[in-house]
Write a structure and sequence with these properties.
alpha/beta; five-stranded parallel sheet; 46% helix
Length: 164
């Protein structure tokens, strides 16, 4: 069975370099590959800054960390978590085990979204330190609001019986 890490995007700085969150996620995915815990990596995230998508920056970090280019797939159309999962799912081989790579505060919602698309993922989250405590608190607060909004939108889709 193929094990695939889906690395969820985060900000790319205006100069085209990875934000701390994006770097943490990409480095963890590379570690998972080197440890033999995943066989492939899908880099997901399309928000282009300085001409570079989140996915392309993730892919570059993974390559520089020793992951062979042929192991990395780029999904560069997504603008949010729901699109990360929806656009990555067709890239998965049949029967693949999925590991979502994202920050701990984002993992709950990411896992819910993945389940909405019929996946039963595990999550892997990098350590948040040495990120300043204020930034970590903002991440959890932002995610609480995003989780509430996701729940309301999901309820609306269920009521209207729309597919994700």
């Amino acid at each position: 069975m193929t094990r695939v890490a889906i690395v969820l995007g985060a900000a790319v700085r205006p100069d085209g370099t990875a934000s701390l969150a994006l770097r943490r996620r990409a480095c963890l995915a590379a570690d998972l590959y080197r440890q033999g815990r995943v066989d492939r990596i899908i880099a997901s995230g399309g928000v282009p800054r300085a001409g570079r998508s989140e996915a392309s920056v993730i892919g570059q970090i993974c390559e520089r960390s020793g992951v062979p280019t042929g192991v990395i797939q780029i999904e560069d159309r997504s603008r949010n978590t729901l699109e990360n999962i929806r656009n990555s799912k067709p890239l998965l081989p049949p029967g693949a085990r999925v590991v979502l790579v994202t920050d701990r505060y984002h993992a709950c919602r990411a896992k819910l979204v993945a389940r909405e698309f019929g996946l039963n993922p595990d999550c892997a989250s990098p350590a948040l330190r040495p990120t300043p405590a204020g930034r970590i608190v903002r991440g959890y607060l932002r995610e609480a609001a995003a989780l509430t909004l996701y729940a309301l939108r999901r309820a609306g889709r269920i009521i209207l019986q729309q597919s994700p």
